[in-house]
Amino acid sequence: MLILSLKNITAGYAKAIVLEDMNLDIHEGECHAVLGPNGAGKSTLLKVITGSVIPAKGSIFFLGNEITGRKTFEIARMGVSLSPENRRLFPDLSVKENLEIAMVYESTKSKKNSMDFVFEIFPRLKERITQKAGTMSGGEQQMLAIGRAIMLNPKVLLLDEPSMGLAHVIKEQIFEGIKKIRSTGKTILIVEQDATMVMPIADKISIFEHGKIKWEGNPKDLTKDNSIRNAYLGI
Asked: What is the CA radius of gyration of the chain?
């Protein structure tokens, strides 16, 4: 089932166009990866979906309903949750408090159930439950940012560069957690630069260049396409 669809999207900042006449479909239960170099428009794509950047042209549909121009908090309440590139944690709050703040209006039981799920995905967070977020390592903060994004059990989870700036061994831990989330049937749209990390968990891959989709297909097809692989992924 088609869960998220972008039709003829053109968007950017002031007069700078970043995405141009772009179409993208995300299906329920799949892990869809968006790859490409810096400046290709990957993060802008997520900002358009979540409503923080309003497209100059085109439409966005979520579960068949148009959400173009809706407020960010409205889109989040509908079931679209983002773990942003810069994490945006509350550094002076504990792990527990950072997780709970995502469910401020929910019942105590719901908070506990969601937190138990987060700790199942990332056991390290349970060990750090009382620690202030700002004192944790970069990898632990990334786990917390993803954990916060899944607290409300979203229909679509958006992940923006989850491995950025992390050592390889920490990247593996992050992606092991994402793999666990994927195994629950969660729909995931992940923006990433490290193709070696994301390809084993992706069902579909879109490669961005200058705000347009240069190539789209499954990981198996990508491994056969030497020109695309060498030019854009370095693998």
From this structure: 17
